[in-house]
Amino acid sequence: MPPRKPIPGSGHQSPRVVLAIELARLRTESGRSLRELAGKVGWDHSQLHSLERGKTLGGPEIIEALDVVYGTKPLLMRLWEIAKQETVFRDKYVRYMELEAEAVVIEHYAGSFLHGMFQTEAYAKALFWSTPHLPSQVPELEEQLVGRMSRQELLLCESPPHLRAIIDEAVLRRPLLDAGEWRGQLAHIVEMASQPHVAVQVLPYSVGLHDLLGGLVAFLRGLDGTTAVWVESSKSGELLEDAREVEQLRLSYDALRDVALSPQDSVAFIEQVMEDSAPCDPLAST
What we know:
The chain is α/β, with parallel strands linked by helices. Helices cover 50% and strands 12% of the residues. The protein has a six-stranded mixed sheet with strand order 3-2-1-4-5-6, sandwiched between helices. Strand 5 (227-232) and strand 6 (237-240) form a beta hairpin.
């Protein structure tokens, strides 16, 4: 088989798009028409066309057949598996958004970045724009930013959910590049903590290692008492609704809440971080 060529756009495109581009490239290089390829693999040409346009992912059988025809095994199957995982993640995230909108109590631990409910627009934008992207992808990032900020409208409705947050000290020690925007973010947390339906606790470094170190965990309790958990890292997320898995994470979360600073001491801690991040007045030391 000839040496592999780089997959066009693989550094910036979604796995679904990369798979579609690769399928179209392989067929073009083979010199086959869609109908000729359909006769070779035993699948309808319209389905092959949908695959090449990224409208469908198809199933493992058709992808395996294409891998055999093109002599690329297992490249296409691996691309398909990655694209499938992306689709599953997106579906789970949509389900999470639905549960969040219906929740009467939201409890979360933030280990490396603030939960979306606490983010200012500047903080959220810094997170979204930190991902490698092309100028053509900026509109998509802007749409994600609008979606992120609109989630906070839940806290402004007539009957907002109770929001309880444990924020790791590490989150408060990783500032935005703009000092003014960072102080604005810290002030926003303090302001939110003053609301009767919001409680904020800081988990200091002195607690040491713990079971939820690093990511973000959010518990969503519905009106019927059932609870789901969203577990997220910087690049992936998983929605858990199995009662045993939820209970195990609940025990870990409760253990952190027991050793975190009280809400009152937590606000004082954040205010101290704000004070420490304020620009020095050169005249004050003279």
